Amino acid sequence: MQPDPTTILAGLSITEPLIGFYDAPDPAPFRPLVTPGRGQCVFVSIKKWRRGKTLHLTREKHGCGGSHLFGIDTASRREMVEFLCDEEGLRATHQLMDLWLDSAKAYRPQHEHLLIGPLRPDQHQYLRTVTFYVNADQLAVLCTGAAYYSRPDDLEPVLARFGSGCMQLTTLFDDLDAPQAIIGSTDHSVRKYLEPWMIAFTVTRPMFELLCLWADDPRSSLHSEFTRSLIKARGGSLATR
After folding, report:
1. CB within 8 Å of 118: residues ≥ 6 apart
2. Which ranges of the chain have pLDDT less than 70?
3. DSSP track, 86-147
């Protein structure tokens, strides 16, 4: 059963829909579906997510996510290094870009269909990550919530790692089966598809479940006067509309 995030959304005045990344055997429960254009960025679909539609990715139709989401070589290593280093300026030298590519891992789908779109409670078993699109104030509270149950010897609860937007949905986590969060949308090639105020806070399914427990604990920071006064003063994401 999917936990209920309503208390988080209400407490932080989050107005954007939560977006799930699913690895599922059947795309039918996620309808209505949309497919990416050739080489199209995953995040072009954000306006469609807002309208309740789900982006459907397969090995045959994967947009720009073939390399990171399916392990498909969409360009030679040399072409990739030259593009990322010389055109996008992401590393100082080709050697550094090569080293980063050597360390990067691709997602390994468990099923034939990857789906990105609004949460589907009846498909919770196939959920891999959840993304909150928030402003800086909401992000601050969520980061605190992500650490609420953590111990010093646990995996770091909140990460901020270099990578593409679709990597920040999946492969930059230490372990998708552990509670962890990533501050995303820091791939500036993706940001043109987002509202200027939007920051992605992507969490694994275990972290999503813990955040919902945090929200239901009346002693947690979500229910503190500090949070209430901040959200009241700023207006939450409503203030950005």
Report:
1. 17, 18, 19, 20, 49, 52, 54
2. 238-241
3. IIS--SSSHHHHHHHHHH------SSSEEEEEE--GGGGGGEEEEEEEE-HHHHHHHHHHHT
Overall pTM surpassing 0.90 (yes/no)? yes
Q: List Cα–Cα distances, 180 to 2, 16, 126, 160, 195, in angstroms.
A: 17, 21, 17, 11, 25
Question: Order of strands across the sheet with 158-159?
Answer: 33-34, 54-57, 113-118, 19-24, 127-134, 199-204, 181-184, 158-159
Dump pLDDT digits (tens) for 185-195. Answer: 999 999 999 99
Give pLDDT tens digits for 10-51. 999 999 999 999 999 999 999 999 999 988 999 999 999 999
Integer Cα distance of 150 and 199 in angstroms: 23
Quick one: tokens of 108?
């390994």
